Amino acid sequence: MIVANPDFVTVEARALIIMPGTLAAKYEKLGGEVKLMGKPDKIIYKSAMAMVGVDASDSIAVGDSLHHDIKGANQAGIASAFITGGIHATELGISSFGQVADLSSVQALAAKYDAYPTYVLPAFAW
């Protein structure tokens, strides 16, 4: 199985929706061979930087997944902004949009995933 988006879940209307990475993990657990082709592999970040002609010092990854977005940024050597109101909101005790997460909870969760953000934001809106 080749998985181009290894995310486990995504947030849609404040509910978590299963993503291809969850299926891949189950398939691998059953004995299947899986090739992941996305975050947190640093090649995705390096390729994006090469496409726009910038280096790590001029880049920042923004995402709500410690395991995929932030860990990938760490591996690529670029800064990151962790959006706490996304897929980890429940784990962080966040119940409303824009609520600020407790810093000690963020630090504990970052240690759990071995993924350390440069910045922490409650939400991302445009």
From TrEMBL:
Q: Output the Gene Ontology cellular-component terms.
A: chloroplast
Q: Which Pfam families match?
A: Hydrolase_like
Q: What InterPro entries does the database record attribute to this sequence?
A: HAD-like_sf, HAD_sf
Q: Give the superkingdom in one word.
A: Eukaryota
Q: Which GO terms describe its molecular function?
A: phosphatase activity
PANTHER family in the record: 4-NITROPHENYLPHOSPHATASE-RELATED, OS08G0542600 PROTEIN
Task: Provide the protein name.
Answer: Uncharacterized protein
The protein's organism comes out as Rubroshorea leprosula
Upper taxonomic classification of the species? Eukaryota, Viridiplantae, Streptophyta, Embryophyta, Tracheophyta
